[in-house]
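Hey, I'm writing a tutorial for new members on how sequence and structure tokens pair up, and I'd like a real worked example in the thread rather than a made-up one. If someone can provide the structure for the chain below, I'll link this post from the tutorial.
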Amino acid sequence: MIAALRRAAMPALVLCAPASVAAATCSGANEYAFSFSSRPTTQLAYGSNYTYTASRTAGGSVNFTVGLTAANLSSTTVGGETMPRITTLMSGGTTIRHLTFGGVFTGRTTSITGTSRIITATFTFPSPVVSFALTADDIDYGANQFRDWIAITGTNGAAIYTPAMTTPWGNNNSGTSTATGSSIAFGTRTSAPALGSASQIAGVSTSDIGTSTGRFTAEFAQPVTSVTVRYGNYPGESTTGQQAMGISGISFCELPELAFAKSSTPATGALGAFALPGNDMIYTLTVTNPSGTSVDAGSIILNDILPADVTFRNVAYDGTTTLPVKLATSGGLTLGASSLAYRQSSDTAFTYSPATGYDPQVAELRITPGGELAPNSSAVFVFRAQVK
């Protein structure tokens, strides 16, 4: 995942990350989770915010808030209970509780992204999290009463993200098809009910309370600070009635915060192990991931500006590699010839091909390793340069 970075003491070394990322992962013990079954049955209120705590087996906790709003409800009663509420209603009265919200809208929802005839539940975190996922139940359709209509988006600053949707039957509920046994469809869809984006979900058939028929999971690959669930009644029929959905819980991983450092040691040469002209210096670049979440492949780029008083050594670092840079400790990363790029002192692009031996034209080295940097691990790169 894109990592939150802190700068090491030596300014010549820069660690950066590209904008496009894949989903980060964390082990079960490092995954934060929260289930509404961990909370007692509780009456909540629209227009209010509530704070909960997610924890992980490996230790640690993260507080988050859930804000609930509603517009244009003629009733807040569903199944004899007042919404919103932490209740067993969505599980058919078993011990499984959901964050349940709904009511009776004054009319069909015209736009799921608008402000009229909409209920929202917004999950907010104090700092970005990755691999955020939520699971919800009882998304379905009742003729001449309701058609559940949902849109889910995640944000991080100005960025807006769309989740990946799955059901207990996989992801073949997207587009025009609906998985057998499921009461929902999601994604861009031209047949009724037409859906305008990949972030939208609609009920297409009935679902019994307490079953997996109306269940879906939404997960974000990108880091998010908030996730909003928008809930309405799809247009098409004029009548409205009681409707509700329930969120059973959430899970997420912490965003990795990488530490990095650069050090140098004189190599033993004809003049001894001293930083004297004609001797080599061994430079060590260390990247550390102290979090419980892996760092995605392609997310680490090391740029090292060489000191003006050294000359880069472009020969095999030692007998264990053919490259001038050695991955001394991998931490799950890999290093190949394509992982290395060079900038000439008179240029700004990393397109220079250094000469074999000591090449004074190399002004900056770029390392783009492959593989994922594992949780709670470090990668160490070493190379040599000669003191002028």
